[in-house]
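Case study.
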Amino acid sequence: MQKSIKRYFALFAFPTLLAFTVMFIIPFFMGIYLSFTEFTTVTDAKWAGLSNYAKAFSNPDFLNALWFTVRFTVVAVITVNVFAFLLALLLTRGVRGTNLFRTVFFMPNLIGGIVLGYIWQLILNGILYKFEVTLTSSANYGFWGLVVLMNWQLIGYMMIIYIAGIQNISREVVEAAQIDGCTRYGILRNVTIPLVMPSITICLFLSLSNSFKLFDQNLALTAGAPSKQTAMLALDIYNTFYGNGGWEGVGQAKAVVFFVLVALIALIQLRATRSKEVEN
Amino acid sequence: MQKTRNRGTITFGVLLVLAILFLSPILIVLMNSFKGKFFISDTPFKFPDAQTFVHFKNYTEGVAKTGFFNAFGMSMFITVGSVAVIVLLTAMTAWYITRVKTRFTKLLYYIFVFSMIVPFQMVMFTMTKTANMLHLDNPLGIIVIYLGFGAGLSVFLFSGFVKSIPLEIEEADLIDGCNPVQSFFHIVLPILKPIAITVAILNVMWIWNDYLLPMLVIGTEYRTIPIAIQYLKGGYGSIDMGAMMAMLVLAILPIVVFYLLCQKYIIEGVVAGAVKG
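After joint prediction, the assembly is written out as follows.
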């Protein structure tokens, strides 16, 4: 069987492979190579060693974006997951209208980042107007604005995964705990949370990588203002490439650093989910 | 008994308040889309009144300014074209590399999985340049780009599903005299339907909302909806708020319709994609 399929490589695998090679594999390796060179287009690259990386790490915009991104990611991951989990608890009590509520809470997740950014720009500026400031008056407003936006977008998504996890817990376990005299809080702590641990891991990493890689929302909400104080990593890389000329090499070096950080998160996630699977 | 009923009522009340809170940003945008552009930024929470109400003026102006219907058509064409190509071709590829077990196909599988974790910014510049050089910087060429950059997740999801199909079904078909092409289209593809829906939904959500990739590749000549909206923000950071509100409503509308039509598939697909991704 394997032999007869193998002859059809050109039909089955080749088209995808060609597009994948040209649009992913080649640009990826070219990107790594170019991060060690100076260039303005891809054909005039001159070897520059590690100087792009040195420039990237001594660039205040980059360091600020890195710190902003880390702070934002920590706050967003915690708030999104706490609210999503609480919402999932409320929606698994079997009250009227559960499906309708689920539909409403999940909807913002489908709206694109650019649209989300401008929706919240209107709302937040409307509130801040009463205090005679705007979103871009201080980096703090932009920070918390992004946190609110991220919560609105991701809570419904994470909630759906938590609901699936909670509904997988068998009724007998909960009833056994009740008969043993567990309080409602005790059941939550000793039964529900340990049993939905796999969902928690998934949600933590999903919200983590979504927050860390944020771009569209950042661009639409504040575009980094004031000055570049609210620019996250992805936006800073974009600005480095397409802002002033002559910084393409540094932009590519920043992009490689960004990739390494994202890959690190993914590797930790892989290990976390693997070890959980063994335990269960 | 009375106590549990009370608790149910309280839960319902809390959820109702939260649901209204969740919907309010969209409703506020909708409300402001009918107000004159100078009455939006400062007082977004006021209902339109006789002085501020402008009927559909924002809509007609916004549509003219952004070329919204062209952008809608462009988004539609790119999304439908790319998703159709991705679903068909990556299903074939996944089937091939799962069924043909060589060192080469194994390596391919790992490269596809690896590509899933690479953020767009890593290849943003080089991919755009490559696309220019190969003359793929047009609405048809961008489909090839989406196939290339989106192949990882789709091949991964299809491969996981193909592994669970018992070989006997396909073998029986081959013994009956079918060649692998017939066997794939008659037997395998129908079995893949549930995961194909998941792959389609995930890719629709990505491509429809994608801003940066189409902006860089075709943005100077063609606008998708996110590009049209970002375009409203003028060169000096000034925004026609009236047109912006109307365009936000028009951008959200197709998503809400799509969501209400295929809600079940979307939620299932997103969960399946999340658990495996």
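Observations recorded in class. The first strand of chain A starts at residue 37 and ends at 38. Residues 62-279 of chain A form a domain with the MetI-like fold fold (CATH 1.10.3720.10). We will return to this complex in the next lecture.
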